[in-house]
Amino acid sequence: MERHHPMQADKKTSAINRLKTVRGHLDAVIAMVEEERYCPEIMKQVSALQGSLEKVNRVLLEGHLETCVLHAISDGRTAEIVDELMETLRYTPAMTGPTEEAL
């Protein structure tokens, strides 16, 4: 279905900044493995990376809902966009859980 609309500037900036942070963090975790650091320390950092990537996904979802989904609904493509969202969420189970703020 792909009917693309430009990402909102604030969402794009947030996603890029978060991804750059993840990249730096990932490099540090790779170094930890290369240095044979204590496995539980590495595992904690991997979990932190996963959490950071989940936050990126939430930012992207917010942007998608605020742009592409709204356009699709106003164009009368509600069923199509709901199907697309359901398919996307099927591959990102962390997106359907509680947010960090809700915990």
Could you list some keywords that capture this structure?
mainly alpha, Methane Monooxygenase Hydroxylase, Chain G, domain 1, 73% helix, 0% strand
Give structural notes:
This protein is an all-alpha fold and 103 residues long. The chain has a single domain (9-102), classed as Metal-sensitive repressor, helix protomer (Methane Monooxygenase Hydroxylase, Chain G, domain 1, Up-down Bundle). The chain is built from three helices and no strands. The longest helix is centred in the middle third of the chain and has 36 residues, at 39-74. The N and C termini lie far apart (35 Å). The mean pLDDT is 89.
Short description:
The protein is mainly alpha-helical.
CATH-defined architecture: Up-down Bundle
CATH superfamily: Metal-sensitive repressor, helix protomer
**CATH topology heading:** Methane Monooxygenase Hydroxylase, Chain G, domain 1
Structural class: mainly alpha
Shape: elongated
For the record, the count of structural domains works out to 1
> Biggest sheet: strands, sense, closure?
none
Question: How much helix is in the residues?
Answer: over 70%
Q: What does the average pLDDT come to?
A: 89
- Rg (C-alpha, Å): 17 Å
List low-confidence stretches. none
Oligomer: single chain
Count the DSSP helices: 3
User: What is the class in the CATH system?
Assistant: Mainly Alpha
Termini gap:
35 Å
Topology:
Layout: H1 9-34, H2 39-74, H3 78-90
Helix pairs in contact: 1-2, 2-3
